[in-house]
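As the next step, I needed to go through one protein, both as residues and as discrete backbone shape codes, included below for the reader:
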Amino acid sequence: MTSPGQRRIDEIGDESRRRILDAAEELFAERGFDRTSFVDIAKRSGISRGSIPWHFKNKNGLVMAVVERAVERIWPASRYQSVPSLTEVFSETTRLLNAGNSALVFMILVEALNDRGVVREQYKEFLGRRREGMEILLRLRRPADADPAKAVDQERAAAVALNGALLGIHLQALVDPDSVDMPSALITLASMFDKNIADVWRS
């Protein structure tokens, strides 16, 4: 049985870890991974610099912890088993755009494009989760006369296209928010998707 004293130590450790991750996430989104130091993170978090490697060993460990937490928050593993509607998918994109850490998603993308290691694998998992949800959405709309031998590949291709469109709208809104009407863009995309959904299963 854990003693009250040990529980308190664990709580303090968890709180320190959370504050470090929060500060690192903010700074990575603002400055990028390479231009953020442990000193910067310590100042922002109010946690001593020496505590950072104690929790995360090194900067790579901290980067991965930030990426893992961001991916899980944006698209939790539990969503693999969910059946999202198109509205839910678009609402998720809007929520992501409005989140304080939205720029971090594309900072991670830049890092993934220049990295062959774990950051890329984490970003692939994030994209895979979104694609999986869209494939489920399409599968539920599959017409009875669709060719089962082709349907899976057709739905995968459509999910990739829809995922790319959503992320593209998001990126444009981040870069030039004054010129991008996010709700209108999503409504237009939804309308185009609904009007042409039957084409997904045509050869």
Observations:
- The chain is about 75% helix and 0% strand.
- Residues 4-11 have pLDDT under 50 and may be disordered.
- The radius of gyration is 20 Å.
- Residues 4-31 form the longest helix (28 residues).
